[in-house]
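lol ok so funny story. i was supposed to be doing the assay writeup but got distracted and ended up predicting the structure for this chain instead. priorities right. anyway since i did it might as well share w the group, maybe its usefull for someone
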Amino acid sequence: MPINDTVEPAVRNSEPARGSAPVPAEQKQSTVKVVRAAIVGTVVEYYDFGIYGYMATIIASLFFVSENDTAALLGTFATFAVAFFLRVPGGIFFGHIGDKYGRKNALSWTILLMVVATAAMGLMPTYVTLGVWATAILVLARCLQGFAAGGELGGANAFVSESAPAKWRALQTSMVNSGTYLGSLIASLIALGLTSVFSHDQIMSWAWRIPFLLSVVIGVVGIWIRNHMEDTPQFKELEDKGETAKVPVKELLTSSGGALVKIIFLGALITGGYYIASVYAATYLQKAGGQSSTVAFLSTSLALVLGVITLPIAGYLADRYGRKPVLFVGSIAAVVLGVPMFMLMAGGSIWQAVLGQSVLFIAVSVVNGASYVTYVEMLKASVRYSGLALGNNITNMALGGTAPFIATWLIDITGNRLAPAGYFVFCALLTLGAVFFVKETKGIELRAD
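and the output, tada:
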C-alpha cells in the first residue's frame, strides 16, 4: 500500500538525505495521520475559499447592487480577486512561521483564520441594511480569507512530503491536493442543495447564509485534527541543529530564486486553469451556455469528482514514470482541448456542458498531480514552506484570482462567448513552456541544505 501505518518504508527504500541523520522510527508519526490532517485542513480551507465563488450570482445581488447585472457580477469577481492579492503577504507570513517555528504551528493558524472569516460572511448584514458598508465588510472578510489561504496549500504539501516515503511522494502530495477539490466539491454540492431545497425568495432572504455558517462545523474538526499532530522529522532536525532560517523569505530569494521562478510559471494551469474550469465555469454555463443553476452546479460537482479521481492516478504515474512526462501530457492536452471544450460548454445541451467542463478539469488535474511534488523537490528544507507558499500565491494572484473577472470582462468587451478559452489556453502554454526548464526529480531525497 502507498500509505503505511508508519513511515519506516522511507528508511528501507532510500538513504537518508545528505548531511542529515535518520530519524528513529519510534519518533515518526503515521503517514496515514499526516495525510489525513493535511487533507482535512485543506478541505476546510478550500470549502471556505470556494463557496464565495459558487455563490457569486447571489452575492452580486445582495452586496453589489447595480442596474447592470454584468457590472454587479464584475464587482463580485473583483472582490474574489482581491483576496488573491492578500495571499502573497499571507504566504510570506505563514511561510516565515512554518520555516522558523514549525509547519504545524502555521497550518493550525491558517485554518482558524479561514473559519473566522467565512463565518463572519454568514453573519454580516447585506447592502439593503448597511449600504456600501456591507460591501466594505464583505471585502475585508474576503481579504482575511485570502491571507489565511496564502499559508495553507504550500504548507500542507511541505508537511506531507517531509513525512512521505520517497517511492510514494508524488502520490501522497497529490492526495493533499485532492483536498482542494474535495473542499470545492462540498461547496458546489452545498450550493446545489441550496438552490434545490429553497425557493429564490428564501435564498435571498436568509438561506444564502447557511453555506458560510457551515464552515464553523467542519472547521472545528479540522482544527482538532491538526492540533493533535507532531511536526515533521526534517523540520525537527533543523530546529534541533539550530539551522532554521532567520528570515526564510530572504534566504529563499538569495539561494533558491531560480526554483521560485520555475514554481511560479509551472503553476499557471493549476491556478488560472483551475479557477476557469471550476469556479468560473459554474457561472459560464449559466450565462453563456443557457443552463440552469442546478445543471451548472451538477456539472461542476461531476468535474470535481473526476478531478479527485484523476489526482492520485496522476501522482501514481509521476512516481512510476517521472514528474515531467505527466506535466507534459496534462499541459499539452489543455492547450489542444481548451477551445473545443469551451465550444461544447456554450453549445446549450446538458451533455455538452458536462463533457466540456469535465475534460478541461481532468487536464488540469493531471498537471496538478505532479506539480507540488516537483516544487517540493526543488527546495531545501529551511525555505520549503516559504518557497511553496510564495511561488504558488504569486501565480494565484496573477492568474488564479483574476481568472473569473478577466473571463467575464473578455466576453463583455469582445462579445465572443469563447473568449475565456483563450485565457485557459494561455495558462496551459505558460505551464508547458516551464516544463522544458525543469529537471526530472523522481526518486531524489529531499534537500536538507
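Residues 119 and 213 are 5 Å apart (CA to CA). The first helix runs from residue 8 to 13.
back to the writeup now i swear
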